[in-house]
Every structure is written in structure tokens, then in C-alpha cells.
């Protein structure tokens, strides 16, 4: 086992050392034409998966290779992220990182198999987006006050799905419970896709989810939007109030903003990181992609890799304080 690890490391180092100048500066194809694996630490259908497929289909042709989406869900993004952290740092593995996998989980899980900062190098911050509280279209709840009152009256509170323990959906629920003093029953899934289907089907009372995933179901009439977690109403959902303006005691300053980013394993050569950063930024800055992100309710970001690292560090510290203060624990 040790010998195989040494051989793999040596091969990765040899490949990195042999990167041509043209490749590093943005010219030429990806070395050897080998496919790039884009690890998505959630099942298909969630925000990270949707964005990975949009980016991957455009990135492959630019680099002269293909980008394969590999979904490895579980533990709020921790399972797939751990796999990504152990991949060879050779430019052939990217990881779709989120607020949960790369900021929250390190404070939530006592034995996380990777360090969200030390195990990865940031490539791109795709954007930020709030989450929205939704219920089935046939639900009797039309306002956040309705939801709070119903949860108070029900033993154990209303049931609320999430993409997994530690995700922004879970933390939004726990913060609302902590600040309002009202209990809810958290039901974690392995991703947004199966979770939101059970809300649509009526098996679960409600769910906080990103606007990327919930938006189409709200527009189709399958879900009813109750409130968004941003500080201001969204241009894409102007009639949906914020949690803060709902009039529920304790929630006047409520705000939860999720984010999506791309990372590579720590040790990936700087020229590789720089090339990926440059090409992905070009893809994301195209008017068509900007319109899609804003249509999803996302706020596109444009940060350098150093700025992303600083942003991530601040997020890790922020959520560590929140989790400790609210006494939030992994289910």
C-alpha cells in the first residue's frame, strides 16, 4: 500500500513538473487529454450538481478534454469531499465545495476525514445564494407565522427535510429553531434532489433549500415559497418576504447565505490552479451564464484565489461560533 502511494505521488509530481509553459499560461490542451473528474459531494439534482454540469460541459472543450461529473453524496458533503481530498494533486480532480462541506462540517462532525482549508486549494467562488423555506402547494401554511404556530402545536414540531446534516438547509432550520424557541423535527437526506421530492409529495412538511433547486418547483406551482433567508427580498422572487420581515419574535436579524465554490486537492501546482481559475472565470462571466446564475437567485462572485481562501477562513470561524452558541449537533 505504501509503495503504491509513493508511486502515485511520484507520477503526480512528474506530471506537474512537466507542465509546458503554454499550458500554464492558458494555451494548449490539458496534458495527456485524460478526463477531469469533477467530484460533486451530493446526489444528482442539487445545486452543486446543477452548477457542475453547467460548468463542466463548457470547461472540457476549452481544455481539450472531457469533464466527468462524479456524484458521491453523504454526510452533508463530507463523504465526497474526503474522497476529493485524497485524490492526486495533478489537475485531474476538482471538487464542488459548499458552505457545508467546506465551512460548517468541520465544527459539526467530531471526526471529519479532511480539513476544509488545509486539504484543498481554492479555484473559484461561483457565487452566493440565500435559501428559501418552502412547503407543498397543498399545505395549509401560507406564512412563516403559520409555520411557527403549527410547529408549536405539534408534538416534536413540523418535519423539515434537508440535503444532509450540516448543510445550509439544516443550519437555517436550526438557527430558526434556536432564535424563535420553536422545535422542529429535522429529517436529513443525502441530497436536495430526494429531499425536495418528498416535500413535493407531502411526506415532509417543509424544507429550506437553495433558490437554484427550489426555484423551478415554485415556478411550476408544486411548492409554495414561505420566506427567503436573505437580508433583502430577491429580484427573482419579489413577492416572497424575508424571514426577518415575517414579524416572528426573535427572527428580526435572521440571515443565512449559502455559497458554491470549486476546489482542488492541496498540493496541486499553482500553474494548474491558475489555469483552472482563469478558464472557469471566463465561463462564469459570460452573459448567458451570468443570466442563469441570477435567474437561480444567485449572486455571482469574482474573487481571486487568495480572496476565496480568506473568505473561507472567515466562514469556518463564523459557523463554528454559531454551532457552539446554538448547541447544534450532527444527527
Account of the protein in words:
The structure is a single chain. By secondary structure, the protein is α/β, with parallel strands linked by helices. The chain is globular. It contains 12 helices and 10 strands. Helices cover 43% and strands 19% of the residues. The two termini are 34 Å apart. Mean pLDDT is 89; it is low at 1-23. Strands 1, 2, 3, 4, 5, 6, 7, 8, 9 and 10 form a 10-stranded mixed beta sheet that branches.
State the separation between the terminal residues, measured CA to CA: 34 Å
Quote the average pLDDT.
89
The low-confidence runs, each spanning 5 or more residues with pLDDT under 50, are 1-23
Q: Helix coverage percent of residues?
A: 40-55%
Count of separate DSSP helical elements: 12
How many DSSP E strands?
A: 10
What structural class do helix, strand and pairing data support?
alpha/beta
Q: Indicate the radius of gyration in whole angstroms.
A: 20 Å
Element pattern in H and E: HHEHEHEHEHEHEHEHEEHHEH
Portion in beta strands: 15-25%
Largest sheet: 10 strands, mixed
Name the shape in a single word. Answer: globular
Topology summary:
Layout: H1 2-17, H2 21-24, E1 36-40, H3 47-63, E2 67-71, H4 78-85, E3 93-98, H5 100-108, E4 120-136, H6 144-153, E5 159-162, H7 168-180, E6 185-188, H8 192-200, E7 206-210, H9 211-220, E8 223-228, E9 257-265, H10 270-285, H11 287-295, E10 299-300, H12 305-326
Parallel strand pairs: 1-2, 1-3, 5-6, 5-7
Antiparallel strand pairs: 3-9, 4-7, 4-8, 4-9, 4-10
Amino acid at each position: 500500500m505504501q509503495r503504491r502511494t509513493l508511486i502515485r505521488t511520484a507520477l503526480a509530481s512528474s506530471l506537474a513538473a512537466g507542465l509546458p509553459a503554454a499550458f500554464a499560461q492558458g494555451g494548449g490542451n490539458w496534458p495527456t487529454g485524460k478526463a477531469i473528474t469533477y467530484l460533486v459531494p451530493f446526489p444528482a439534482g442539487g445545486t452543486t450538481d446543477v452548477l457542475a454540469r453547467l460548468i463542466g460541459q463548457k470547461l472540457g472543450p476549452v481544455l481539450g478534454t472531457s469533464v466527468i461529473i462524479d456524484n458521491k453524496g453523504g454526510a452533508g458533503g463530507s463523504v465526497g469531499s474526503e474522497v476529493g481530498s485524497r485524490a492526486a494533486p495533478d489537475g485531474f480532480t476538482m471538487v464542488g465545495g459548499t458552505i457545508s462541506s467546506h465551512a460548517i462540517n468541520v465544527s459539526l462532525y467530531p471526526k471529519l476525514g479532511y480539513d476544509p482549508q488545509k486539504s484543498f486549494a481554492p479555484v473559484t467562488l461561483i457565487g452566493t445564494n440565500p435559501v428559501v423555506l418552502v412547503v407543498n402547494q397543498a399545505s395549509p401554511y401560507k406564512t412563516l407565522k403559520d409555520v411557527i404556530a403549527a410547529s408549536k402545536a405539534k408534538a416534536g414540531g413540523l418535519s423539515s427535510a434537508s440535503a444532509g446534516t450540516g448543510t445550509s438547509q439544516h443550519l437555517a432550520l436550526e438557527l430558526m429553531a434556536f432564535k424563535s424557541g420553536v422545535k422542529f423535527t429535522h429529517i436529513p437526506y443525502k441530497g436536495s434532489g430526494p429531499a425536495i421530492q418528498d416535500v413535493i409529495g407531502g411526506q415532509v412538511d417543509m424544507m429550506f433549500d437553495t433558490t437554484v433547486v427550489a426555484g423551478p418547483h415554485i415556478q411550476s406551482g408544486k411548492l409554495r415559497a414561505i420566506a427567503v433567508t436573505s437580508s433583502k427580498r430577491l429580484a427573482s422572487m419579489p413577492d416572497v418576504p424575508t424571514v426577518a420581515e415575517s414579524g416572528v419574535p426573535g427572527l428580526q436579524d435572521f440571515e443565512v447565505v449559502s455559497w458554491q465554490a470549486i476546489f482542488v486537492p492541496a498540493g496541486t501546482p499553482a500553474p494548474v490552479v491558475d489555469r483552472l481559475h482563469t478558464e472557469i472565470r471566463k465561463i462564469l462571466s459570460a452573459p448567458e451564464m451570468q443570466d442563469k446564475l441570477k435567474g437561480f437567485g444567485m449572486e455571482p462572485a469574482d474573487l481571486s484565489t487568495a480572496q476565496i481562501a480568506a473568505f473561507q477562513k472567515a466562514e469556518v470561524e463564523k459557523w463554528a461560533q454559531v454551532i457552539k452558541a446554538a448547541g447544534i449537533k450532527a444527527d
